[in-house]
């Protein structure tokens, strides 16, 4: 049983989606996260354990390697896809309450900005950290963030921007959210953003990379 | 007001400036680069203080500590002149691509001036219209570079209240270049045609930059802007017709309209592409029936802005690399000691390091170290290589999505022209081996400064050529394409 968990961890960390996928070369022909999750569930492994002992540590390793420049966007995406192939099979257990989510994370690229790759990577990594994701997409203004917060009370909000000309819109959104509920935590990220800017607009945390976002959220949840 | 002397060593220049003058206002003319536009984020504008004192603010101190610089180094963008000082500034010369390509034309009377108003560089040519002979050329750096290397930082500067200053700077720079050419050739132009990207057009014309600052990046009126010499404060007769040609859409401007004219792709039966590797990377694909184009933010890596030791193609920049299987040899502009790497050599480096097995398909450095020595002291870090992957993926994605929009495969493109500032220094073989351009060697050609060639072609006739192209050309937004993310990420892989 431990062997399946270990294999699943490896498959997700190195982005092996299913048996027929050619990537990564060193796992060619082996079972991917799709098959391994099936096997684990069939063998009666607790779904919570699949999440906590395979997916979360695998994505944690991916996040650390990305933060250290050891891997880049394509490898991270492959890992996220492998995680997705497992996660889709765990969805019913989230719904039934057999797996407990750490919390809800609402994420979107701010108004005026259409760049969503960075935002998507953060969403995938946070999902791989055991959180439920509400992805609002791109060009999102404060009204839509506030609406999503009303349907998901207690959620944490993440804002992304890629341009210096659009990151200023983060200020209005943070102000709007805090006006509705001062207790809501807001974290921000994106190429032009930094900790000074984060402080200046009253956001709670600046995440320089996806792993930092996951670590901050986990601290909030613990 | 108090004044100070600023000596620039070893240039032997001495400037007299008012108290509290920011160094950024003086030094951009002498080759000091300000890629981030003085926001203090990039650390590229380092100068060594040989004599005198520059007061360091707390935030300046933090940046210097972060960069681990010797104690006499300052960031010019955060420095003010408060006493007489001597600064060490590197010897400096820039390479700007003019053009002497022949093209077909109908002879006319009089003289015309073609202006390629680039984000980074300016080129003007005075042309005799009955022979298409070039009587004079002027080149210089765009004086707006002190507001940042890329278009977004120029727009930001405009929003921050510098738009009038940028407008006056560029009008006076181009005016001076034309005046120098007129004095040299002793001729007065009957017409002046300027081409440039949308942001350059708006700044030159004194228009509001706000619509270009965020989605949907649409201008109300991107059409031709017409001026008289006196409106621009240029000292020649008001009879001269001065036109800034129309933009195509979003960030794709009349420089690309001119580029299309230069390649003649609007009259070809076969699908032809134009890739302009300038500060803003633009891609065009089409034939005589229809043409589509898009812009990508590929430029900053090729202009060196996002690289730890990146720089423009100026003295001291490694401009190309070769290898014999064991060692890497470099060519340095000005034949001096290298102090950085420019776009053409960045492409060489990626191709050569891949070929030598020093990096893998994902750009990962195989030794496990954080950087690779290219030519002492110039190194490429792991992050620099990733910056290249982003830029090369942006170009490859652009071509792929344009082809998909036209319902063809990239292999169905019969010719691909490479244009742009460093286009001439590019090793085409390396464009192919990195996967930046996906075609075969027989279909890819360098074409130099296509914006300038096209601007000269526009000097003949009454705008029919530009109208013909505009009528066939539309702009698309690459990010709006459904599979954009998957395509873009898959193109980050080398080879």
Structural write-up:
The complex is a heterodimer of chains A (222) and B (495). Chain A is 56% helix and 9% strand. Chain A has 222 residues and is of the alpha/beta class. In chain A, α2 (33-42) runs parallel beside α4 (73-96). The model of chain A has no long low-confidence stretch (mean pLDDT 96). Chain B is α/β, with parallel strands linked by helices and 495 residues long. Among the domains of chain B are: 3-88, Ubiquitin-like (UB roll), CATH 3.10.20; 111-268, Nucleotidyltransferase, domain 5, CATH 3.30.420. Chain B is built from 12 helices and 22 strands. Chain B has helices spanning 23-27, 58-67, 151-185, 198-205, 254-263, 299-302, 343-355, 382-405, 428-433, 450-458, 464-472, 484-490, and strands at 3-9, 13-18, 46-51, 73-75, 85-88, 111-117, 121-128, 133-141, 191-196, 225-227, 241-244, 272-277, 281-286, 291-296, 317-323, 328-332, 340-341, 371-375, 378-381, 415-419, 444-448, 473-475. In chain B, a hairpin with a 3-residue loop joins β12 (272-277) and β13 (281-286). Chain B is globular, with a radius of gyration of 23 Å. The mean pLDDT of chain B is 92. The A-B interface holds A 69-75, 77, 111-117, 120, 139, 163-166, 169, 194 and B 39, 41, 152-153, 155-156, 159, 213-215, 362-364, 370, 381-383, 386, 389, 477, 479-480, 485, 488-490, 492-493.
């Amino acid at each position: 049983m431990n062997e399946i968990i270990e294999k699943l961890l490896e498959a997700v960390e190195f982005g092996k989606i299913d048996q027929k996928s050619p990537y990564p070369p060193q796992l060619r022909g082996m079972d991917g996260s799709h098959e391994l999750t099936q096997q684990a569930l069939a063998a009666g492994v607790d779904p919570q354990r699949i999440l906590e002992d395979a997916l979360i540590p695998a994505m944690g390793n991916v996040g650390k390697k990305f933060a250290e420049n050891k891997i880049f966007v394509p490898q991270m995406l492959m890992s996220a896809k492998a995680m997705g192939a497992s996660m889709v099979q765990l969805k019913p257990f989230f719904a039934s309450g057999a797996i407990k989510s750490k919390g809800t994370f609402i994420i979107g690229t701010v108004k005026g900005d259409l760049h969503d790759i960075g935002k998507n990577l953060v969403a995938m990594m946070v999902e791989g950290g055991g959180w439920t994701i509400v992805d609002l997409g791109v060009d999102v203004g404060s009204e839509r963030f506030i609406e999503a917060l009303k349907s998901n009370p207690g959620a944490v909000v993440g804002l992304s921007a890629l341009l210096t000309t659009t990151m200023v819109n983060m200020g209005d959104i943070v102000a709007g959210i805090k006006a509705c509920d001062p207790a809501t935590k807001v974290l921000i990220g994106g190429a032009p953003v930094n900790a000074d800017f984060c402080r200046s607009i009253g956001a709670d945390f600046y995440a320089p990379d996806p792993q930092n976002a996951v670590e901050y959220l986990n601290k909030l949840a613990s | 007001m108090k004044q100070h002397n600023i000596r620039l060593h070893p240039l032997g220049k001495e400037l007299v400036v008012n108290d509290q003058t920011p160094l950024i206002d003086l030094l951009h003319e002498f080759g000091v680069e300000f890629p981030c536009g003085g926001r203090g984020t990039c650390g590229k504008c380092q100068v060594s203080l040989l004599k005198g004192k520059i007061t360091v603010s707390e935030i300046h101190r933090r940046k210097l500590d972060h960069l681990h610089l010797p104690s006499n180094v300052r960031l010019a963008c955060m420095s003010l002149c408060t006493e007489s000082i001597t600064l060490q500034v590197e010897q400096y010369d820039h390479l700007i691509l003019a053009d002497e390509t022949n093209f077909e034309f109908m002879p006319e009377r009089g003289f015309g001036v073609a202006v390629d108003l680039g984000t980074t560089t300016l080129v003007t040519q005075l042309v005799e219209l009955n022979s298409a002979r070039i009587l004079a050329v002027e080149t210089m750096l765009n004086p707006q570079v002190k507001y940042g290397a890329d278009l977004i930082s120029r727009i930001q500067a405009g929003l921050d209240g510098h738009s009038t200053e940028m407008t006056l700077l560029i009008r006076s720079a181009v005016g001076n270049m034309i005046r120098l050419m007129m004095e040299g050739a002793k001729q007065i132009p009957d017409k002046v045609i300027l081409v440039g990207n949308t942001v350059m057009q708006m700044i030159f014309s004194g228009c509001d930059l706000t619509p270009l600052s965020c989605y949907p990046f649409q201008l109300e009126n991107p059409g031709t802007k017409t001026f008289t010499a006196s409106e621009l404060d240029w000292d020649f007769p008001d009879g001269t017709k001065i036109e800034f040609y129309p933009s195509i859409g979003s960030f794709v401007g009349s420089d690309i309209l001119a580029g299309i004219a230069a390649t003649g792709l609007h009259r070809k039966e076969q699908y032809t592409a134009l890739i302009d590797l300038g500060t803003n990377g633009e891609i065009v694909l089409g034939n005589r029936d229809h043409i589509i184009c898009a812009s990508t933010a590929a430029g900053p890596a090729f202009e060196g802005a996002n690289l730890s030791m990146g720089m423009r193609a100026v003295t001291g920049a490694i401009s190309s690399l070769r290898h014999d299987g064991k060692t890497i040899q470099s060519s340095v502009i000005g034949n001096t000691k290298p102090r950085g790497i420019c776009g053409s050599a960045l492409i060489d480096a990626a191709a050569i390091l891949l070929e030598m097995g020093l990096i893998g398909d994902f750009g990962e450095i195989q030794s496990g170290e954080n950087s690779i020595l290219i030519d002492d002291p110039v190194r490429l870090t792991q992050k620099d290589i990733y910056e290249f992957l982003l830029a090369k993926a942006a170009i490859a994605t652009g071509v792929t999505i344009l082809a998909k929009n036209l319902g063809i495969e990239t292999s169905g493109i019969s010719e691909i022209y490479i244009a742009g500032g460093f286009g001439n220094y590019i090793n085409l073989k390396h464009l192919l081996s990195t996967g930046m351009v996906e075609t075969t060697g027989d279909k890819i050609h360098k074409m130099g400064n296509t914006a300038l060639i096209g601007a000269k072609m526009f000097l003949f006739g009454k705008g029919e050529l530009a109208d013909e192209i505009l009528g066939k050309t539309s702009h698309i937004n690459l990010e709006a394409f459904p599979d954009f993310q998957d395509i873009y990420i898959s193109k980050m892989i080398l080879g």
